[in-house]
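Workshop exercise sheet. Pairs work together: one partner reads the sequence aloud, the other fills in the structure field after running the prediction. Swap roles for the next sheet.
Pair: D.N. / O.F.
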Amino acid sequence: MRIALAVEYEGSGFRGWQQQPGGGTVQDALQEALQQFAQVPLHVVCAGRTDAGVHALGQVVHFDTSLERSMHSWVRGANSFLPAAVAVRWAQRVGADFHARSSASSRHYRYLLLNRMHRSGTWHGRVGWYHHPLDLQRMQEAAALLLGEQDFSAFRAAECQAISPVKVMQRADIRRHGDLVVLDFVATAFLHHMVRNLVGSLVVIGQGRHRPQWIGELLASRDRRLAAPTFPAAGLYLVAVNYPARWGLPAADASDFLSLLPAAGPTATATP
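Structure field:
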């Protein structure tokens, strides 16, 4: 049978998702935990590989097994062997044609940016930080230019292995909660470092160094060298992976995480 899992993790102590020599990845931790529970080797495939230091609230994976266990047992069994920074949220049996990556209709990433003069101690490793004031309206105007089908080559890492740089951006929201600037992006798929590169350029615009229209110019240029540097991984979260209703997977829900945010302040959004 094929089983899908939703996994959340705090990524600052890991070398990213993807299994690699030397271990220390989220995939290593999850596969080792499942193997300890099942007593047989299991290989998991994820919806989206995250880099070192990136977090996830709703990473989705699948694996194949002939073992008969209840879905509740898979969750409790995996969690009993996982390190504290990784947890399985749910498990569900799916059809043999389900694929965590290729069956997904969209991904939702969120970047949390602390915007104040001094860095945070309590949020260390969980937020990005920028000490100059940012103009949220300018950033919102720029974010609106990202919507729709676009060639995101200007925001693509050199080592990106995606077949095509063309993706459909369905949502680009920017809002402020006190000192925290929250940037949400939903797209059919994302290129390597795409969100962190977008955040870097939006911050430059928010600082006033470029007009909001600069984002459109970067998209048209398809030249990564012209965009801003890649922003740190610490503030990036894979919030959810969305699937067509026919798969019957639990709806993505980040409300537990949103409750951690400070009281809401001024809001700026860009939606289709």
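Discussion prompt: Confidence is low (pLDDT under 50) at residues 259-272. What would you look at next?
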